[in-house]
Amino acid sequence: MVYIITFLQIGIFILNLFQWSNMSKQKEVDNSNKYSILLPTYNEVQNLPIIIYLLVKQMNQSNYEYEIIVIDDGSPDGTLEAAEQLQKIYGKDKIILRPREKKLGLGTAYIHGIQHATGNFIIIMDADLSHHPKFIPAFIEKQQSKNYDVVSGTRYIGEGGVFGWDFKRKLVSRGANFLTQLLLRPGASDLTGSFRLYKKDVLEKLINSCVSKGYVFQMEMIIRARQCNYTVAEVPITFVDRVYGESKLGGSEIIQFARALLYLFATT
Amino acid sequence: MTKLQEWLAGLGILFAIWFHLITSKDHSTFANENYNVILYSPIVFVLIFGLYAASVVLYRVFTFNDCEEAAMELQKEIKEAKEELLKLGFKFKEMTN
Question: Is there a contact between A266 and B2 if contact means CB atoms under 8 Å apart?
Answer without folding.
Answer: yes
